[in-house]
Amino acid sequence: MKKKLIKILEILMPLHNREEVVSVANHLDINLDLLNKSIKSVYLLEDKEIISDIEANKNRANKLMIKFSDSKIAFYELSYQEDYNTFPMYNLVADGATIKIYRFTL
Fold first, then answer.
1. What is the per-residue pLDDT across 70-97, written as a single tens digit (0 to 9) for each?
2. How many helices and strands, by DSSP H and E, does the chain display?
3. Of 56, 81, 90, 91, which is least packed with CB atoms within 10 Å of its CB?
4. pTM for this entry
């Protein structure tokens, strides 16, 4: 199960070395929905409002809403960090660990 978690994190954290990925994996609950369920859709939010113009409002995003294929919805704390190769980079807080994500596509 831990190998699967590390593989998913390597996709979510493409610019990190393996040691950093393993360190984050060691702090996450392996039952975390974000890492185990099929994701249906992802929405960038400012508080409770969906951000439709992401490029113009990327630094206002503070939450990520994820709808899973089983109809469950989860909210994760999010903070804009910077642009990386024209893609917004965010810190996503899940289960007390911070995961760097790009393009907020999970």
1. 999 989 999 988 887 777 888 888 877 7
2. 4, 6
3. 56
4. 0.71
| Residues sharing a CB contact under 8 Å with residue 84, sequence separation 6 or more, in sequence order | 15, 102
Q: What are phi and psi of 42, to 5 degrees?
A: -130, 135
Q: What are phi and psi of 33, to 5 degrees?
A: -55, -40
pLDDT single digits (tens) 5-33: 787 777 667 667 888 888 888 877 767 77
Report the chain's terminal Cα–Cα distance, integer Å. Answer: 19
The answer to whether 31 touches 74, Cβ cutoff 8 Å, is no
> Nearest 5 degrees, angle CA 45-CA 46-CA 50?
40
Tell which residue, 94, 22, 106, 100, has the closest CA to residue 67.
106
